Amino acid sequence: MTEKNFKFSFAEQDLVIELGQMANLSAQAVTLRYGDTVVLTTVNYNDNSINQDFFPLTVVFQEKLYSIGRIPGGFLKREGFPGEYATLCARLIDRSIRPLFPEGFNYEVQVVNNVLALSEDCDVRFVSAFATSLALALSGLPFQGPTATVVVGRINNQWIINPSKQQLIDSELELIVGGTVDAINMIEASAAEIAEADLLEAIELAHTKIKSLIGFQTEVIKAINNPKVELPLLLIPDEIASFLKNYQPQVDELSKITDKKGRSNKFKTIFELAKTAFFSANPTWITDGAKEAETLKFIHNGLEDLLKVTMREMILSTNHRIDGRKINQIRPLSSKIDILPIVHGSAIFNRGETQVLSIVTLGALAEHQIIDDLGKDDSKRFMHHYNFPPFSVGETGRMGKPSRREVGHGALGEKALLQMIPNEQDFPYTIRIVSEVLSSNGSTSQAAICASSLALMAAGVPTKAPIAGIAMGLIKAKDQYVVLTDIQGLEDHLGDMDFKVAGTTKGICALQMDIKISGLDFKILSEALQQAQVGRLAILDSMNQVIDKPRTQLAANAPKILQKQVPVDKIREIIGTGGKVINKIISQANNVKIDIEEDGRILIYHQDQAAVEAAWKLIDEIINVKPIQVGDEFAGSVIKILNFGAFINLKNNTDGLIHISQFSKFFEKKIENLNDVVKVSDNFNVKVAKINDKGKIDLEIIK
Q: Does the annotation flag 492 for ligand binding?
């Protein structure tokens, strides 16, 4: 391919497209430079269709630490499985392009974003999303783009497009918006309780910038003018679709079944009837195993399409839903705290058939997570992990490593909850929440946020305010549409939008939008946000009936903490040579945990408050040395035995001598060899009898 370059200025940086320079055996490769950030994006596909229920698109975000001039940690010193940041970046890109492929395009497509160089001033997510769109558009595949994604921040009430790493850290908003020239199709955000109106303003600004980026892409696509790839779409054959219409009355009956399990079982019965009848009437369709499996998929998907039409027409024509609710009605809510013993905090949240259990664990600051990736954080002391086991939907399945979906939902909850977590100075703990999905019928990620907020307050974490999440849906047919509050699983699966909004009574803390249509206009977006606000406040009211503010005390077995400030020049004395002193303090104070910061801040943790105070007393004796005087009493241990006596450690590095004669008095017998009656580490209560001019201390034993 002939090398070609294109240049565009965006957000005070040059955006340079390089074609034909790298990876020329790929179906399409684009090298994109934005400032000093460089990403190579490749697109490849398989021209044999795959009979699956979903479009087999894979988006890969390859983190390479050489891109920031760093060698990976660990024993192998090379990159391994994708980390959380890479997974989230891949999902972000996926969500903006997946809706832009036609139905029935069931060909495996792989997009790989290779981060070759990364500048802290130029967001790699923006670069990768742009390069992905352009590579797909140039590949000839039926991609209904182009699309673009921008990042928006806000500092001191000023909007910032594609903020730098430091600006993102300082920003009260991190908004990522993807869209086409006509509409928005992907949103993700974390914010410090931003108002709905302000968020809409930021999204509109982002879309304006997106249009200019798409204009640049369009010029490049026209200039290259690559041929289209002709691949037949895998659609349900007319013969099967026509046959399945006979089952429309039975499918319509599904709309009268309100519970998920009952509806699912009835659907399986209809499927078995249709399958048996079709193969009986059309025996030639069973020619081999592969064709039979394909036909079964067509029958299943055809029946699901009938249910989709029934459900959507019912909502659009009657404003009533398949479970009997009105369009703005939330499912029954219930919550409970203190579900589990031993743990530091727990809560369970129920919304209809969706149920999530969240568990809080508190630890020392030293237990924070160290992050070795390309994101803006090097470590974090607050973690939210989300688990979605197959039993939550009544199925068998793989258990083990978290899926990309689990990582994504956990991160969304973490973004929301993080806004309410107290700072390190006020609450010097590492905090981990695990949300276990026990039963799923839609909106589990938002239920996890609700359960986690309750568990945090129950654990005594001084959160700033309760926080709740809700998922909004959409049914759209031409110019007619209905926004749904609190969607269940079927409405998510057969609907057009999953719009998750989490926040407090004051504003939005996190947001994520996925859609299955090409895009949304701002009228629908605004209506969804306003409807979500009403729903969120109703959920918060329900949660507040259980607990409305954090407890003032931690759980009995949660680590207690004492935070003190010591002179920096005393840190060395507290630690001691090779950690000798600090290890002795830890041992004497029932194995407390002690963190010492460079600025002299000391944090002592233990489940027993007495152990914490004992450790601080030992440290205080080091930093506030009081001179030993005649008459002072100590409980000391033998550290050395000589012919004429034994040395006892009184405190820190101060020792005193008990003469052998004192031991004779104590044991009431003459002692020839002190080793016969005394061993190193024996403990004695002693009193200072004499201190000579050189500071040497003579002791006598107290009976």
A: yes
